[in-house]
């Protein structure tokens, strides 16, 4: 049998096992195996010979395999055909066919808009822009579609009706093969570096090393590492990236069927040498949780955001004789502090719910960035002139300009709570002083399950904030120094 290909390997060969049997015990087990196989074959013959509807042997075999795997009650173990295995590996390596956009859907208003257009993608070439609202896909209104119509074969076309600045426009995009970068990085003012790690592909560690070197050359003094929406990938890539933060120590513990814990150690890494803040959310999973746990427990990073997904299990791709693959959970892992967070997730050090922008601003503040300028509307966001996923929650109503309460709180480094009895947003600054904004006074409004604050009223109580609003472009600018 061919050796296992580890889709989440820590080190090569870590799945290898040494099993010793006496000759008598081996013979007895072989006899039992033969009997079990005879039973399965017997049932298959009955089904083929007598089932009134007729059966297909390949379908029976696949059903039997799926049945065995399903008895594990493990959502991560599955049987792949050759084609399915190849598609899975493409997904892990961030390779797919599409148009190259990331979207945000607001259920309350049934609005679907483009949050990011990938550089060099078919979407960019066709003229789509972040902030565009998709009204129809191939003539079907968004309220009547799941959005799956965006998928399709390379070379085929999809027609989008979009709304931009109040005007409608039809754009035809040709789908193509896309490989997303696993790692991107930039300096956000001063010497604060921001690195987004979107997946642990086979080349993610090499990409990370290059981006990190560029950030050092640019004068990096602190780092925000964004692992939000990173659902994992190859564990050896995570190990190699962890070794760029710590020179020695335990990255995690693993255990197999025996239950014995084995430390996975880093012995020849490199100290990062700067303060690190890690961003997580509910889609930070698997290998990205392993990296988060390693940095947290080794006291190398502060974690900001929301509790992570909770997948503390490692799968291996086991080759089958017919060319198919079995993706099987073969190990569990714990953080260096021996925390098993499976189905629980890792709790952040500082929890920021409900706003990507507030999470990012909080992380930048902790990393030491003192001057921050946000610009955008209810769809898009720029931070110090650079594009990011997120928005300001901008609303123009009652001749007032409103912005997200969470974003405003993050900018002025205040805690925010909601007083449901008095329908009031309560901000508490670092000195413990409390400021309230009520619905009754129209200093606060509620929209799409979010609280928005009159920016003019807010700036009067928090003079560190300056702001301006461009009515013609419907763009809000918020700044703190």
Q: What can you see in these coordinates?
A:
By secondary structure, this protein is of the alpha+beta class. Helix content is 24%, strand content 33%. It has 10 helices and 31 strands. The strands form 7 sheets. Strands 3, 4, 5, 6, 7 and 8 form a 6-stranded antiparallel β-sheet that branches. A 6-stranded mixed β-sheet has the order 10-11-12-15-16-19, with helices on both faces. Strand 7 (157-164) and strand 8 form a beta hairpin. Helix 5 packs parallel to helix 6 (235-242), helix 6 (235-242) packs parallel to helix 7 and helix 8 runs parallel beside helix 9 (405-411). It is globular, with a radius of gyration of 26 Å. It starts with 22 loop residues before the first helix and ends with a strand. Residues 1-27 have low confidence and may be disordered.
Unreliable runs, pLDDT <50, ≥5 residues? 1-27
Kindly provide the radius of gyration, computed on alpha-carbon positions and rounded to a whole number of angstroms: 26 Å
By secondary-structure content and strand pairing, the structural class works out as alpha+beta
Number of strands: 31
How much β-strand is present in the residues? 25-35%
For the largest beta-sheet, the strand count, sense and barrel status come to:
6 strands, antiparallel
Q: What overall form do the CA principal axes indicate?
A: globular
**Percentage of residues assigned to helices:** 10-25%
Number of helices: 10
The averaged pLDDT comes out at 90
How far is the N terminus from the C terminus? 64 Å
């Amino acid at each position: 049998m061919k050796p296992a290909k580890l889709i989440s390997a820590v080190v090569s060969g870590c799945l290898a096992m040494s099993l010793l049997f006496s000759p008598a015990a081996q013979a007895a087990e072989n006899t039992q195996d033969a009997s079990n196989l005879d039973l399965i074959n017997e049932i298959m013959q009955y089904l083929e010979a007598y089932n009134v509807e007729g059966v297909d042997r390949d379908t029976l075999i696949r059903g039997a395999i799926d049945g065995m795997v399903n008895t594990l009650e493990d959502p991560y173990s599955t049987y792949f055909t050759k084609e399915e295995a190849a598609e899975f590996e493409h997904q892990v390596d961030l390779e797919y066919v599409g148009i190259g956009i990331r979207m945000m859907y607001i259920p309350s208003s049934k609005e679907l808009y483009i949050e990011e257009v990938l550089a060099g993608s078919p979407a960019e070439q066709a003229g789509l822009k972040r902030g565009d609202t998709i009204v129809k896909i191939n003539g079907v209104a968004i309220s009547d579609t799941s959005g799956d119509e965006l998928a399709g074969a390379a070379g085929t076309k999809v027609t989008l009706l979009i709304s931009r600045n109040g005007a409608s426009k039809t754009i035809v995009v040709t789908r193509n093969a896309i490989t997303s970068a696993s790692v991107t990085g930039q300096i956000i003012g001063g010497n604060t570096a921001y690195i987004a790690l979107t997946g642990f592909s086979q080349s993610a560690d090499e990409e990370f090393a290059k981006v990190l070197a560029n950030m050092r050359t640019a004068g990096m003094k602190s780092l925000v590492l964004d692992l939000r929406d990173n659902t994992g990938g190859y564990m050896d890539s995570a190990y190699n990236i962890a070794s760029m933060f710590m020179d020695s120590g335990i990255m995690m513990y693993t255990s197999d069927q025996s239950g014995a814990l084995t430390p996975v150690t880093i012995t020849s890494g490199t100290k990062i040498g700067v303060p690190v803040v890690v961003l997580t959310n509910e889609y930070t999973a698997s290998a990205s949780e392993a990296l988060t746990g390693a940095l947290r427990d080794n006291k190398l990073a502060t974690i900001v955001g929301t509790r992570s997904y909770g997948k503390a299990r490692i799968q291996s791709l086991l080759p089958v004789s017919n060319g198919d693959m079995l993706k099987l959970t073969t190990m569990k892992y714990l953080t260096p502090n021996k925390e098993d967070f499976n189905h629980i997730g890792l709790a952040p050090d500082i929890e920021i719910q409900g706003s990507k922008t507030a999470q990012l601003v909080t992380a930048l503040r902790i990393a030491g960035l003192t001057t921050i300028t946000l610009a955008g509307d209810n769809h898009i966001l720029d931070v110090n002139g650079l594009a990011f996923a997120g928005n300001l929650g901008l609303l123009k109503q009652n001749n007032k300009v409103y912005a997200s309460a969470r974003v405003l709180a993050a900018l002025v480094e205040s805690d925010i709570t909601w007083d449901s009895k008095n329908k009031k947003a309560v901000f508490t600054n670092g000195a413990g002083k409390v400021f309230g904004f009520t619905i009754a006074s129209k200093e606060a409004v509620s929209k799409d399950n979010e609280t928005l604050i009159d920016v003019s009223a807010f700036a009067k109580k928090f003079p560190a904030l300056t702001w301006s609003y461009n009515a013609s472009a419907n763009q809000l600018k918020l700044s703190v120094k």
